[in-house]
UniProtKB/TrEMBL annotation:
This is Calcium/calmodulin-dependent protein kinase II association-domain domain-containing protein. Residues 39-161 form the Calcium/calmodulin-dependent protein kinase II association-domain domain. It comes from Durusdinium trenchii. Coiled coil: none annotated. It holds the Pfam family CaMKII_AD.
Length: 163
């Protein structure tokens, strides 16, 4: 697997997998795996981005700690705790307004770096993310902190900045 650029095509109707249910099954399989390799951790990040792009909040909740913390542009410099802030955007994507998903989007993870910690029960993943919508591309720089506890991998914290 080329860790320099992983790409997934996300559309309103599903993921790069044949059916969203197959993607959800793969996410559950990875999340329950106590020992992950680098490629598996990249796949967890990819799965997380897939569910964000397709508006699958139920699977997002499965992957995230209920007390998830983050810094992201939408929070305007504030530390956000919990999932309610994020649910607002998932709900917004379901509507018919200008923020609703209407175009095919392509998300690429570029140059990921993984740092394993705590006897491989935690990891930070840093990468550049490119999101293409039509002829426009948005770049962000992201760091995501994952931890295996209670029998599954959970996203504990992330930081996303404009790239």
């Amino acid at each position: 697997m080329n860790l320099q650029a992983l790409s997934v095509l996300s559309a309103e109707t599903g993921l790069e997998f044949a059916m969203p249910s197959q993607a959800a099954a793969r996410v559950k399989e990875l999340a329950a795996k106590a020992k992950l390799e680098d490629d598996d951790m990249i796949a967890m990040n990819k799965a997380l981005l897939d569910v964000i792009m397709t508006g699958d909040f139920d699977t997002y909740k499965l992957l995230c700690d209920e007390n998830l913390t983050c810094f992201e542009p939408e929070a305007k410099g504030h530390l956000v705790t919990g999932l309610d802030f994020h649910k607002y955007y998932f709900d917004l994507m379901k509507g018919d307004g200008p923020s609703a998903k209407q175009d095919v989007r392509n998300t690429s993870i570029v140059a990921p770096v993984i740092k394993w910690m705590c006897n491989n029960t935690a990891a930070t993943v840093c990468f550049k993310r490119l999101v293409q919508v039509g002829v426009n591309t948005v770049a962000t720089e992201e760091t995501r902190v994952w931890e295996f506890c209670g029998g599954s991998w959970k996203l504990r914290h992330f930081h996303r900045s404009h790239g």
